[in-house]
């Protein structure tokens, strides 16, 4: 009797499982089974798909963009607020701060659109915006270098109207070229329909990033040449002053050394930030892990974070304007020395 009871109940288990499976396939509500049961995966399949996990590199780029936007927004506000900051030098610093501000906003928008509105079209627009912003930033750095060279080489005629026209022409050309570079991927020079032509920065093509890298290398070489000439002029001026005073004082040596060191820091910071990414864009392959692209792109964004410190916050006129802006009044006991564009 006991054995017959066991045999009569054994087929009931498969029948129950088949019935439950039929109910699940028909869309009926299945009973919730404890973890480890045969239908435990059916509960997960009925849930909506989980959102994409945040990439830590994207978070760091967004944080970097936020810091860049805040720093440069302050510089732009100070230059726009202070009527005294209208010389060609501050026009160039304002152009650099504006470009870096747009680059920071572009990094933030890229993060938001990537995780909130995932779309190839939006991604293309964001990448084009970033290309134009960073190109304008690098071009503004070149314009500042040219301005510093002219302020030393043509010191007597620097403050003429011709210099102002030259500066405005340089900025118009720099922003025009940067805008064209940003529009190229938007107007069709992308790899959305041909994945084999993609570069390490999707959706830019290999030929596109090669053009951008070649442009950067050219600008970097021009800046190196101009800064070498600036160093020669500074050393020559210091030597002439020493000859006029018939001896070389320690202050002349310290001033010359400080100027050359500052130029080396400016050029070294720019090269260390952008060179790894520019080189990787040329030699990298889209099949390489994306971590290589992130690891070279993130330091490049740091250049836009350092630019306000080098070109704006160290300037005495901007420091004075910050006192006026934040304190509402200028304390006379705090002395500021007006700096010329040739100061480095």
TrEMBL record:
> What family does the Swiss-Prot or TrEMBL record give for this protein?
Belongs to the G-protein coupled receptor 1 family.
Task: Give the Gene3D superfamilies listed for this entry.
Answer: Rhodopsin 7-helix transmembrane proteins (1.20.1070.10)
Transmembrane intervals: 89-117, 123-144, 165-189, 209-228, 260-279, 291-313
Subcellular location(s) per record = Cell membrane
* InterPro entries found in the cross-reference section: GPCR_Rhodpsn, GPCR_Rhodpsn_7TM, GPR6, GPR_3/6/12_orphan
Q: Tell me how this protein sits in the membrane.
A: Multi-pass membrane protein
**Record key words, sorted:** Cell membrane, G-protein coupled receptor, Glycoprotein, Lipoprotein, Membrane, Palmitate, Phosphoprotein, Receptor, Transducer, Transmembrane, Transmembrane helix
Annotated CDD domains: 7tmA_GPR6
Q: Where is the G-protein coupled receptors family 1 profile domain?
A: 71-311
Which GO cellular component terms, listed alphabetically, does the Swiss-Prot or TrEMBL entry include?
Answer: plasma membrane
Q: Organism, per UniProt?
A: Junco hyemalis
A GO MF label: G protein-coupled receptor activity
Source organism, top-level taxon? Eukaryota
Q: What is this protein called?
A: G protein-coupled receptor 6
Primary subcellular site in the record, as a coarse category: membrane
């Amino acid at each position: 009797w006991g054995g017959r009871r066991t045999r009569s109940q054994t087929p009931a288990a498969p029948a129950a499982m088949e019935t439950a499976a039929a109910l699940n396939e028909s869309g009926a509500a299945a009973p919730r089974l404890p973890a480890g049961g045969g239908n435990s995966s059916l509960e997960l399949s009925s849930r909506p798909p989980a959102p994409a996990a945040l990439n830590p590199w994207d978070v760091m780029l967004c944080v970097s963009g936020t810091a860049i936007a805040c720093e440069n927004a302050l510089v732009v506000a100070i230059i726009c607020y202070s009527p005294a900051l209208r010389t060609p030098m501050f026009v160039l610093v304002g152009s650099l701060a504006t470009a870096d501000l747009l680059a920071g906003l572009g990094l933030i928008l890229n993060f938001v659109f990537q995780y909130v509105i995932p779309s190839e079209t939006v991604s293309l627009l964001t990448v084009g915006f970033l290309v134009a912003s960073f190109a304008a930033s690098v071009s503004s750095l070149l314009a500042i270098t040219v301005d510093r060279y002219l302020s030393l080489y043509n010191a007597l005629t620097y403050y003429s109207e011709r210099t102002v026209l030259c500066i405005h022409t340089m900025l118009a050309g720099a922003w025009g070229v940067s805008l064209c570079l940003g529009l190229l991927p938007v107007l069709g020079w992308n790899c959305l329909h041909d994945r084999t032509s993609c570069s390490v920065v999707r959706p830019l093509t290999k030929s596109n990033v090669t053009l951008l890298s070649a442009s950067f290398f050219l600008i970097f070489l021009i800046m190196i040449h101009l800064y070498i000439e600036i160093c020669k002029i500074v050393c020559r001026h210091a030597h002439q002053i020493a000859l006029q005073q018939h001896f070389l004082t320690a202050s002349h040596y310290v001033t010359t050394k400080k100027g050359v060191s500052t130029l080396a820091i400016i050029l070294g910071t720019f090269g260390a930030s952008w060179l790894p990414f520019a080189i990787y864009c040329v030699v990298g392959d889209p099949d390489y892990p994306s971590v290589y692209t992130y690891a070279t792109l993130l330091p490049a964004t740091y250049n836009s974070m350092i630019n306000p410190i080098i070109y704006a916050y160290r300037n005495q006129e901007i420091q004075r304007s910050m006192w006026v802006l934040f304190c509402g009044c200028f304390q006379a006991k705090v002395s500021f020395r007006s700096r010329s564009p040739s100061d480095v």
